[in-house]
Design brief:
Elements (H helix, E strand, L loop, with lengths): L3 H25 L5 H25 L6 H6 L4 H4 L3 E2 L2 E2 H35 L8 H17 L5 E5 L6 E4 L5 E5 H6 L2 H16 L2 H14 L4 H26 L2 H16 L4 H6 L1 H12 L12 H16 L4
Parallel strand pairs: 3-5
Antiparallel strand pairs: 1-2, 4-5
Helix pairs in contact: 1-2, 2-10, 2-14, 5-10, 6-8, 8-10, 8-11, 9-10, 10-13, 11-13
Amino acid sequence: MASPTDLAAEILAHGVVAALVVQVVIRRVPVRAPVARLAFRTCVLVLPLVLPFMLRWLAPCRGTEAFTDLALFSTARWNRLAIAGVGLRDLGLLVAALLGIVLLVPDLLHLLAARRLDLRAERTPLPADHPVVTAFTALVDDTVPVMGAPPTRVDIVETPARLLHCHGAWRPAIVASRGVVDGLPRDQLRAAVVHEVAHIARHDVLRGWVLLVLRLVQWFNPVAQLFGRRAAQEMEWEADRVAATVTGTPLALARALIWSVRGRDAQFLGVLGRGRASIIEERCRRLLDYDPDTDAVAPRMAPAMTGLVAALATLLFFVI
């Protein structure tokens, strides 16, 4: 029976190989649609967790010495080399685990800090009959049916922070600060609302939690951390694409993003918040270069995903 270290090494090897293949496909095809790239990157997070266990059950011959000679890559053979008495495979796994923790912990801190800010803000909600709440609720209610999203609750809070995001995997809600609702021009506020409703329509809050769980389970895998981060960015880019398409004003959303991050840097997450300014800058560049033809949703996703999974499963069969 395989030890936990053997399984971790195989999961890591499968993740690296899958990531290389998917990245080549995305770059060479190329795959431009964010929703397609999200699906491909999710494969890199899921397959390494599923295949090692399935293959050990369906193909026990992979554990024999004869199959090791046929394998394209065998993690066990690297342990025949040792440095200071530690096998090279185990040493590499240790380095990978440290790198995975370094990549995972800042995102967890960001999530905790954002949640703490939400909890503080939720203590000061504006009453439902407040004019600001009424106007913003009407804007959301007008947007939800157009986007095919479920009924969405609106919470306006009295806080100096510039908040506008959605939360709730099962009962979606949009949380906004009064400063955002009052401070953004109408076209920018509408673009930002369409962006958030697009997240709700695609169940991105639930997707985000699933991505986080996949990353936590593979805390020792830096490839999973990098692809998990990028998958989260693809969700933001897809929501940006939808907002630009629905409103026809990608520049309005870009201006709303810039206004929001300028207020957030000083008061939101300190160093972590400033580090995310580069992500906002990239989103703004994509919005400025927005082309509805090249950024359109990729057609026939099911055949593409089936082919990718089949190809990866065949290749990873020979990685142990």
